[in-house]
Design a protein that fits this description.
The protein is built from ten helices and twelve strands. It is α/β, with parallel strands linked by helices. β8, α8 and β9 form a beta-alpha-beta unit. The chain starts with a helix and ends with a helix.
Length: 291
């Protein structure tokens, strides 16, 4: 059934007569009358009782009028929603992020974005980088926020935010690390027990090999937060990005590494061949403008 026929029927009812409706709709009265007859035949019911002086909705007509109004409102709402979606004014933005990425994005990006696009909703997934890549490849999320090093493929678009130094964080009442001016020579880690995540282990071991010593790695795991808990408990020296120290319940001392390029980058990823909504494009544009 043509939505225009429903609109015309509603106008006939609300105008009070075929004559008045035909003037508003710019449709000849005989044509509008024939349209109504065709509609009643299609519905197999008399919808409007009419004579030369007045018209009145039948019981079937009342029901049809209510349903027609609902359909028209839904059609108008749907058109508006599609328009908003196409313009990036609404929709759901699905983002998988490392925990530290979630905090920084919420602080610097989300308030500005939601102020500009208040109808856009968010779904956040806090994962480690390798899991984020899988969610991105599966199409579960629109955007991934990760830390390097990790497996970024040619099918991914990457926007790198910044370099961040990895530091060694520790309890100063348990471990007395050497060094000056907040820095330590890698080789001076000596036999201190190290806790580190898998993603940094290979790079760390390679740097230690260049310095001709084998590190005392006590714990290797998947999550920076676990390393920080170990460091807080005094079980080892944690190798972590400097910004993650804000996760600590109890402050830790930390030192940067002297004379070595031991750093990580945060990156915002999308899949090149996946559909990218206007809301996603707007979010990425704001990230590139702000970060």
């Amino acid at each position: 059934m043509d939505i225009k026929v429903l609109r015309n029927f509603v106008e006939i009812v609300e105008s009070g007569s075929l004559t008045a409706a035909s003037k508003k709709l710019f449709i000849a009265q005989p044509a509008l009358s024939n349209q109504l007859k065709t509609l009643e035949k299609e519905m197999n019911a008399l919808l409007i009782e009419r004579n030369s002086r007045h018209q009145k909705l039948t019981d079937a007509g009342v029901l049809f009028y209510e349903r027609a109004k609902s359909i028209i409102l839904l059609e108008n709402s749907m058109a508006k929603e599609i328009s908003d979606f196409e313009n990036g004014d609404s929709g759901i933005l699905k983002i998988a992020t490392i925990p530290s990425g979630a905090i920084s994005m919420l602080d610097s990006i989300i308030p500005r974005f939601t102020e500009k696009y208040p109808k856009v909703k968010f779904e956040f997934y806090e994962k480690e980088s390798d899991s984020i890549l899988q969610l991105l490849e599966d199409g579960t999320v629109d955007i991934g926020i990760i830390r390097t090093p990790c497996r970024i493929t040619p099918e991914m678009d990457a926007f790198y935010i910044s370099d961040e130094k990895l530091v060694c964080a520790y309890r100063s009442d348990i471990f007395s690390l050497p060094g000056k001016n907040g820095e330590i020579d890698l080789a001076d880690l000596g036999d201190f027990p190290i806790v580190i995540i898998h993603r940094y282990e290979e790079m760390f071991r390679a740097l230690c090999e260049e310095k001709s010593f084998v590190p005392n790695i006590r714990n290797v795991n998947q999550q920076v937060t676990i390393n920080l808990k170990w460091a807080e408990a005094g079980l080892g020296v944690a190798i972590v990005p400097e910004s993650t120290l804000s996760f600590c319940a109890h402050p830790l001392e930390y030192k940067r590494f002297k004379g070595v390029d031991f750093s990580t980058k945060r990156a915002i990823l999308t899949m090149k061949n996946n559909y990218i909504s206007r809301a996603t494009k707007n979010f990425l544009a704001l990230c590139k403008e702000t970060l």
